[in-house]
Amino acid sequence: MKKNNIVISIIMLVGLLLGNACSAQEGGSLQVRLEPARGLCEVSACEGGEDGSKCIRFRLHNPGPVSEGDTLEPLPLVIFLHGAGERGRDNEGQMRLCVPYLLSDEVQSKQRFRLLLPQCPEEYRWAETDWTLLKHTMPEHPSVPMEAVMAMLDRLIAEGMADPDRVYIMGISMGGFGTWDALQRWPERFAAAIAICGGGDPKYVDNVKKVPLKIFHGRKDKLVKVCRSQDMYDAIIGAGGKKASLKIYDNLGHFCWDEALKTPGLFEWLFSNRR
What we know:
alpha/beta
């Protein structure tokens, strides 16, 4: 696959919760200082420069060390890909759906982990395809925002912040398509995944079938047809895959993610997987 050419540069880091959780030097390598308090930091991946038109914005959640004396350590990393309605450049829209639950004590108590929250600009998609179609062919190259996500992942691993054996990806709607796209291109990068009301390209099922995967969809979904998830699941099983499961909600439509994320044992399962 095409190697990403996004150069990570730090635009600014802002502590948003209990005080200043992060710090960095502009233009240098990613440097993060964790305080005992939890925090959300703002970082950017830019191509060629730092004018806002070429930057993908992220929020990075740091759980904070257990005690003040703890040092920076690589933690499990969860990448969450939002849906089409949360696109923009304000670096806030991507936190509207699902993220409050991911940051809740209910989930945070399962495992200390970092949460990477990229925001896709309006003119892009995580996977450049029409999600209303009954099928699609995976584009030859990843989208610009997806390249930025992978570049940021590389940097977090290089800086000792993410455990490369415990990287997880999940997404809803457009982000569900992005999850499938990432798994098809870089299956070796992810320990497990959660794809909600998305779809992929069954031709790449051999790349996906060994990744532990939970798939969710609403049968009444009128935006992304349920066959998109069903076809991918059937292809995985047909190719001998044994690590995928599919849950279809008969009484739900497109907005099934709240129900999916509250599946009993979902996050215990997620964090139990290692690459």
